[in-house]
Amino acid sequence: MTRFAVTLAFQLAVAIPETAPYIKKAVMNGGLSGLSLVAQLRRLVYEPFKAASKQVGRIFKAFFKPFLIVIDGLDECDDYEEVQAFINDLLSFFKKNPLVPLRFLITSRVEQHIEGHLKEGHVRLADLVNHCSREDLEAFMNTCFEEEKKRNPVIRAYIREHADWPSKEDKATLIDHIDGSFIFASTLFKYIIDPTDKLLTPMQRLPHTLNMNPGLDILYARTLSRSQDIPHFHEVISTLALAFEPLPIVGIAELLGIKTFQVVRVLVNLQAIIHIPGTDDLPVTIDCVQSNFFKLT
Question: What is the per-residue pLDDT across 161-197, written as a single tens digit (0 to 9) for each?
Fold first, then answer.
């Protein structure tokens, strides 16, 4: 959570310009060096928002509802003590300032170091699995497939000779198989339309996805095994999995003592499970589920 407070403060200043002068003042008066995460959040987020809401109270009240900050995947943070300190201080701030028009929505897997600290009377806990609608998944998958049809000449040629693709039956079966997981849906779609797989078409890959379990291990293993004979594959993958912070392509190349094009050659075959940035100086990222899979293999 090294840059958490600074990132949140920047987004706050963009969304609510009235907070910017208070954030700037907090940075200029003493800086942030040596401050804990809790102290940074108080100085850069909580107090600036509180001050701005008092100064422009009528503007804030005009919205009728509090402003919302969403923190997704809190369980992905490795520093348990820092996470616990963040939660405790956040709850303490709202106990002392119950009328501040600010709310936090935190999503996380069920982790004891998180859930145990959120069991407070003014915290509402909910199981998001029970809130995932089939209609939302259908809309997501329909949008993905429609966009791919516009880009992919192979799919367009198939549709001209056959019926629409995927069929209503195939889409319904796919939605059933996804079983409410947007992560699974996104990763399966990337596999279906994988542009680096020259042997199979998307139409051929779609039936294969129905044999993949929602744990995603089969998909990851199949994608990785297809690329493991590429030079420097194991070094690049190990670097991605073990790096403390996401590295750019140039950083990976420099660390391994190889050329950037050699790193790119490995990565382009893994686009179904890895996000490759548009330039060599931006970080290559993998999501938490995939990172954990790499570390276990």
Answer: 988 899 999 999 988 888 777 767 877 888 888 877 7
Query: For residues 146 and 271, what is the distance between their CA atoms, to the nearest angstrom?
Result: 20
Sign of CA dihedral 247, 198, 225, 262: negative
CB 119 within 8 A of CB 84: no
Contacts 24+ apart (CB under 8 A), 76-82: 76/288, 77/1, 79/1, 80/113, 82/1, 82/37
> Could you tell me the two tokens for 80?
């348990």
Q: Token pair for residue 289? A: 């589920």
d(CA 89, CA 92) in angstroms, rounded, equals 5
Backbone CA torsion sign across 94, 100, 102, 103: positive
Structure tokens at 3: 């840059």
Q: What separation in angstroms does the CA of 85 have from each of 1, 106, 244?
A: 12, 15, 21
User: Residue 86: helix, strand or coil by DSSP?
Assistant: helix
Distance CA 243, CA 88 (A): 29
pLDDT digits (tens, 9 = 90+) for 211-250: 766 555 556 676 677 678 889 988 998 888 888 788 889 9
Q: Is the dihedral of CA 107, 285, 155, 214 positive or negative?
A: negative
CA distances from 77 to 4, 37, 273 (A): 11, 13, 20
As given in the structure block, the two tokens for residue 256 are 């391994």
Q: Give exposure, 117-153, as e/b (b: 16+ Cβ within 10 Å).
A: beeeeeeeeeeeeeeeeeeebbebbeebbeebbeeee
Cα 175 from Cα 141, distance rounded (Å): 8
192 near 206, Cβ under 8 Å?
yes
Are 266 and 258 spatial neighbours (Cβ–Cβ below 8 Å)? no
